[in-house]
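Before the break, one more example. Copy the sequence into your notebook; we will annotate it together after we see the structure.
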Amino acid sequence: MNNIEETLWNYIDGNCTPDEQSAISKLIAGDEAYRIKYQELLALNKEFAAIELDEPPMAFTYNVIEAIRTEQAQVPLKAAINKRIIMGITIFFVLTLTGFLIYALTSMNWSGQSIPDLAVKVPANFKMPDVSAHISKPVVEGFMFFDVVLALYLFDTFLRRKNVPKQVN
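Here is what the structure looks like once it is written out:
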């Protein structure tokens, strides 16, 4: 845009001071180039005023929000969890706990108990590997504490899933 157009648009829009308005009106009356350009810009301004602005329909916002809501509902977070990984972790902990239970039962002193038949059924050359050098009491207690907390968490999740009513879409 050149200087003449800027000046005339300011005059048409009413963004000029009263002194500038009187100077521009004298230029329009006296200068042919200013008057022709002013007529063109005034006609263009009237056309702009006559144009109706497109408005979105009344339900536009509602439709957009519903589209977002259905898009999020299509991919729930639980669908992204791989069931094989959860099963593998569960099997690991079950086997580890079973191993600890077997170790605890075989390392007990059964001679003071009234179960003499159990000692006869164990072969004489059967010997458990010595893992006491690798596993200390705090490590075992920490592992058992972690397993108990994990079991309580899973049990709580299971109970909460039962109590959640099915949502109707």
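The radius of gyration is 43 Å. Helices lie at 3-13, 18-30, 32-50, 60-74, 83-106, 116-121, 137-163. Try to locate both features in your own notes.
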